[in-house]
Amino acid sequence: MSSIVAELQSSLKRSTLLATLSSRGGDAVLGVNPQQATLVNRAAFGRSLENAGAEEHWFQLGAEEVFYLHHALKCISVCKSEGETRVSEGELWDHLCSASESFPEMYKAYAHLRSKNWVVRSGLQYGTDFVAYRHHPALVHSEFAVVVVPEGAEFGGRCGRLKVLSDLLCALRASGSVAKTLLVLTVSRSTCELRSPDCLELLAVHERTIIRWIAQQCREQRCKPCREEANREQRGSMPTFVLLLALTNWHVS
Q1: CB of 136 closer than 8 Å to CB of 42
Q2: Fewest CB atoms within 10 Å of the CB: 71, 77, 98, 120?
Q3: Cα separation of 144 and 109, whole Å?
Q4: pTM reported for the whole predicted model
């Protein structure tokens, strides 16, 4: 995936393309030629519009995709409406943050996964923030249902996500019902304000997968108990919370 994204970046840079922001929200529309459209599809950015013509293809980009192409890859420019001048990076940041208060942490999580060659799509239909694919969505199902959890006073009331056990269990059940592993990305900050893109360098992302631990299934799948299981049985039963959930640190390769 990294080589495809690099090829797309090089092609878009040579064309100096201009994406147009939608009147409401942080979405944008980008027009590309047929060769670039193939690369955009292969890199899994945006959604192809049905009214695309033969000579020019149009893609609708989400807020995180727009800023990633503009800020991280530096391969497109952005304007607020057709015919207007290009907006600066700071103006684009302000626009996207005004459209969605949670944009800073959502973009940080999106860019974190994208930088590690995961394909990231909206997880709205699964009740999560994103879903992550190992390869192109046309080839494989998504492996992870991603929930972004901000930590820090700068994020205000958004810091309460998944802090109630019932909320965590609901997210876990929902992701399990569609055969996905729940991936929680905790975005924490180190004394920074969220008023400019400069804060992105100071935001840290911590990854954790959460799975249900079902004793009966584990015993049926293993003929012999592993050493850790034997030690646990010798020590006695685990706390109730651990019996319900198994939390594992996870590093994206």
Answers
A1: yes
A2: 98
A3: 13
A4: 0.81
Strand order in the sheet with 57-61: 47-48, 57-61, 28-32, 17-21, 76-79
Output the CA–CA distances (angstroms, integers) from residue 106 to 15, 54, 81, 165, 226, in the order listed: 28, 34, 24, 22, 39
Q: What is the pLDDT of residue 162?
A: 73
Cα–Cα dist 90/107, whole Å: 15
Question: Rounded to the nearest 10 degrees, what angle do helices 103-115 and 89-99 cross at?
Answer: 120
Task: Answer positive or negative: Cα dihedral of 105, 109, 115, 118.
Answer: negative
CB contact at 8 A, 205 and 109: yes
- Mean per-residue pLDDT pooled into runs of 10, the chain (253 residues): 89 89 85 91 90 78 95 93 84 91 92 95 91 94 92 66 78 87 87 83 89 65 52 43 44 50
Phi first, then psi, for residue 99 (nearest 5°) are -75, -30
